[in-house]
């Protein structure tokens, strides 16, 4: 856990140092709750009749967008989510057991693009680098709306779908392949030119 915390702190430090050097882009912070999750399972990989059902999750993220053009932005950041599950044994030969409830911590880094359209709309998509709980490469897709003030402050809502560890790093066929969906609500602040104008 200490290694994970150190990694996150190092990531934030490098990200903000890069932002300070560029003096360009947008920082954002989001929260997501009342979400749904599901583990993709195969009966051939569960000979013990164990079934795992998602019970939802909550997540927090810090995001950074770097402008590539007037309507395209590079998107990255770091996301933490607390995923909840219920595990049951459906073997008809065994006695009925009460579900086992447990939580898992997931940390991932999105690397993708955010494409703006009209005045307030956007879509975002890319790959996910899952670094904890299950290491691997996944993907995400979302769409949303954002409103920004002349001085750079903004708010946004972003419904999304994520698939985690589609390609596990260790190529383990029994790796946990998580699918989750929800709505992110966040605030943002554009740095650079708008910040300089505000200071004046």
Explain this structure to me?
This protein is mainly β and 200 residues long. It has helices at residues 2-22, 193-199, and strands at 25-32, 36-40, 50-67, 72-89, 100-117, 121-132, 136-148, 153-168, 177-191. It contains two helices and nine strands. β6 (121-132) and β7 (136-148) form a beta hairpin. Strands 1-3-4-5-6-7-8-9 form an eight-stranded antiparallel beta barrel. The chain has a single domain, classed as Porin (Beta Barrel). Mean pLDDT is 82; it is low at 195-200.
Summarize the topology.
Elements: H1 2-22, E1 25-32, E2 36-40, E3 50-67, E4 72-89, E5 100-117, E6 121-132, E7 136-148, E8 153-168, E9 177-191, H2 193-199
Antiparallel strand pairs: 1-3, 1-9, 2-9, 3-4, 4-5, 5-6, 6-7, 7-8, 8-9
């Amino acid at each position: 856990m200490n290694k994970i915390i150190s990694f996150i702190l190092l990531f934030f430090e490098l990200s903000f140092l890069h932002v300070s050097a560029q003096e360009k882009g947008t920082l954002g912070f989001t929260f997501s709750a009342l979400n749904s999750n599901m583990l993709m399972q195969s009966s051939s990989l569960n000979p013990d009749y164990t079934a795992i059902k998602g019970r939802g999750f909550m997540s927090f993220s810090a995001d950074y967008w770097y402008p590539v053009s007037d309507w395209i932005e590079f998107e990255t950041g770091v996301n933490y989510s607390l995923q909840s599950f219920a595990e049951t044994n459906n073997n008809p030969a065994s006695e009925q057991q009460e579900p086992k409830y447990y939580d898992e911590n997931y940390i991932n880094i999105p690397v993708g693009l955010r494409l703006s359209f009209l005045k307030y709309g956007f879509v975002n998509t890319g790959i996910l680098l899952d670094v904890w709980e299950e290491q691997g490469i996944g993907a995400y897709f979302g769409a949303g709306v954002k409103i920004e003030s002349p001085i750079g402050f903004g708010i946004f809502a972003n419904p999304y779908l994520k698939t985690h560890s589609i390609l596990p790093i260790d190529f383990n066929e029994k790796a946990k392949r998580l699918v989750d969906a929800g709505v992110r609500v966040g605030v943002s602040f554009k740095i650079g030119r708008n910040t300089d104008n505000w200071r004046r």
